[in-house]
Amino acid sequence: MIILRNISLRRGSKTLLNNVELTIQPGQRIALTGANGCGKSSLFALLQGELGADTGAIEGLDSMRMASMAQEVSATSENARDYLIGGNTEVFALRQQLQAAEQAEDFARVGQIHNELEACDGYDVERQADLLLAGLGFATDDSARSVKDFSGGWRIRLNLGRALMCPSDILLLDEPTNHLDLDATVWLQQWLVAYRGTLIMVSHDRDFIDATCQQIVHMEQQGLQLYKGNYSAFERQRAERLANQQATYARQQQRVSEIDDFVRRFRYKATKAKQAQSRLKELERMQLIAPAHIDSPFRFRFPEAARASDPMLKLDKARLGHGDTVVLSQVDLVLRPGSRIGLLGRNGAGKSTLLKSLTGVLPLLAGERFTGPHCSIGYFDQQQLEALDLQASAALHLQRARPQAREQEVLDFIGGFDFRGDNATKPIAPFSGGEKARLALALIVWQQPNLLILDEPTNHLDMEMRHALTMALQEYTGAVVLVTHDRHLLRNTVEELLLVHDGGVDVYEDDVAAYEKWILQQNPDARPQQREMHAAPVTETAATRKQQRKESAEQREKLKPLRSAIARAETQMDKASTALAAIEARLSEPSLYEESNKAELADLVWEQGKLRNEAEQLEESWLEFHQELEDLEQSTV
């Protein structure tokens, strides 16, 4: 048990914690949340003994083995596998002692060390390290590469692997998913679910928190507040509390109304079954938790997208890659006004290559790239942070992008990204990674693009900024192509998923949850394992196989009527959509509004309203059928 007693903590002139108390039980899984700068990393440093409290004491840590994730990696020549093995300090020390004993020909000590290695599972560390490397997205031959040969983001992954390699009673992880793609994030999620110690984690990925933690410790107003449940439960509780504050009621209702409008727009044009169903569930949930974010410092919108070409951008039989290396072949992709596409695929499959080829940063190796005359691209990747001028202010960055803008207009806009007062006008050199990421996003919004191409835009962003970005993207009327490991953002902002896999790009018909399962199936050897938790294998007999076939047949029979109903509803929806499109095409003709066509105009307007109601009712039925189907499938698993 860890007990924080009357802890106060100051950094400089700022009080982070004031006389707080907190008890952490063994095996608890806690997410530490709060705005950037509230003191989460300082609390971690306090737990690790790197900082001392101004008052109070922490009890219960002396007997605990602690593992934590370093945020920086020195450019060591050690190979990746050995670097991870170094995280198991006991085994690493024994291996060093074994080498020294063998050189000294102290064979009695050699034998003793071998026994100690056997007792602590020291002969399995190479295999464990290779499994961690595979799960974190490293290629097979990466284990022998020198640490100094990896980029900064990959070194952070090595630090994470080193922390996971260390036997521990308490594990501290500070933003573990920041440099991970979706595949590695899902793998880490499974690993942490199997972890049997006490987990304390700082993360701004709500899906990741929901899957791995059962308590939230929220840092706010110099205090620590413990909430039972995962992040979604915390959000609901906070929403209920803030909803009762009359001062913010009007703002809450305005936000709920805005989400209502978006839900209505989306329902009308939803086309893909599971993706639409998942999306609507998320939007309805967001209506309930809107008050939880009403005090967010971030409030911005993408301007109405300017006139756009159709198509905006097109790749035709494109071959993509670098130099002589072909990454993707025969890529056909058309982006139209309003396209909202999310890219899925394992690390190295070619997602970033595709994005750079879309922007023109990377020339095609073959095929054609067509850009419409009214296509204005806003492109975000982590390189945008490096391109910022550290000696310029946030306001000056915007002024340079649009010199004709008035100073007050610049300051009002940048304030929506929480750059206010001195933070808007002083050089950005001391800014954190999160602040620089916010500025890079602000620059893109400021330039009013009608096509957004976003490569991991949430890295370094805190929970409130991610929420604000989700809201802004929902209201954005332009086209979006998105790569992100933030599943909440993916579910709430895109309408079509593409899978980048095996050198090609294909439509992915299922939803994000199905993709998570697919990830784990692709690499069974890298699945996290805890031997004590595994049940004894079930021996399959002819009788059990016969029973399984019988149950499968019964399952198919139960699902058949629902599948037929869904197919009928989709056929009727297609017919209604085609008829509505024909009417709206006729309504767009200027001649229809002449006096002689008044009767036809009235008939068409009436028919348009009728078809819209019919389409909405069909879609309601279609979603209900899918919900029934999903519930039935889950009940028989």
TrEMBL record:
Residues 525-561 are annotated as: Disordered. Keywords: ATP-binding, Coiled coil, Nucleotide-binding, Repeat. SMART domains: AAA (SM00382). CDD domains: ABCF_EF-3. Residues 549-560 have a biased composition (Basic and acidic residues). Gene3D superfamilies: P-loop containing nucleotide triphosphate hydrolases. One of its GO terms (molecular function) is ATP binding. Residues 566-635 form a coiled coil. It comes from the Bacteria. Residues 2-246, 313-527 form the ABC transporter domain. This is ATP-binding cassette domain-containing protein.
